[in-house]
């Protein structure tokens, strides 16, 4: 994001009182933690997708890129620590060893961190680009 502060659609929706109770607070906190951590780690091409009501997987999906396998691993490590520090300690992680595509499941938010070539190959955002799904590119 290179020094600018962008308010994402996902973050805006997380701030709205449309969700109820504890789940709303957890989703708001989780998406804010994820986006801040990715920004701090210099993740690139961050896309947040609001999938609440569209999938039972989570309320939000976030896709980001790292410049190399080492950068992808560092982004994932930093994100896992940030989630743990904010009370989301039960995250599940896949792919950290090779760091081509790391999947982090934080219950309310699913995060995919890719190397650019791998992201381009799988094109996971296209899968979620239905007309009624809100995706925001940063």
CATH class assignment: Alpha Beta
**Biggest sheet: strands side by side, in what order?**
3-4-5-2-1-6
Using the coordinates shown, work out and report the CATH topology: Beta Polymerase, domain 2
Task: Write the CATH architecture name.
Answer: 2-Layer Sandwich
Tally the structural domains.
1
Question: Please, could you describe this protein's structure?
Answer:
- The structure is a single chain.
- This protein is α+β, with helices and mostly antiparallel strands and 138 residues long.
- The chain has one domain (9-129): Beta Polymerase, domain 2.
- Helix content is 40%, strand content 22%.
- It is built from five helices and six strands; from the N terminus they run H-H-E-E-H-E-E-E-H-H-E.
- It has helices at 9-15, 21-40, 69-85, 116-122, 124-127, and strands at residues 44-50, 60-65, 92-94, 101-105, 109-114, 134-137.
- Strands 3-4-5-2-1-6 form a six-stranded mixed β-sheet.
- Helix 1 (9-15) packs antiparallel against helix 2.
- The longest helix is centred in the first third of the chain and has 20 residues, at 21-40.
- The radius of gyration is 14 Å and the shape is globular.
- Mean pLDDT is 82; it is low at 1-19.
């Amino acid at each position: 994001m290179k020094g600018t502060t962008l308010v994402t659609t996902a973050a805006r929706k997380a701030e709205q009182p449309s969700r109820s109770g504890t789940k709303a607070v957890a989703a708001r906190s989780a998406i804010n933690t994820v986006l801040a951590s990715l920004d701090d780690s210099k993740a690139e091409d961050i896309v947040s997708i609001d999938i609440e009501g569209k999938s039972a997987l989570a309320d939000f999906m976030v896709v980001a890129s790292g410049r190399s396998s080492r950068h992808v691993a560092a982004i994932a490590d930093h994100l896992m620590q940030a989630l743990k520090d904010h009370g989301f300690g039960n995250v599940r992680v896949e792919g950290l060893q090779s760091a081509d595509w790391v999947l982090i499941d934080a219950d309310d938010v699913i995060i995919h961190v890719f190397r650019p070539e791998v992201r381009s190959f799988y094109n996971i955002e296209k899968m979620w680009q239905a007309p009624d799904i809100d995706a925001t590119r940063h």
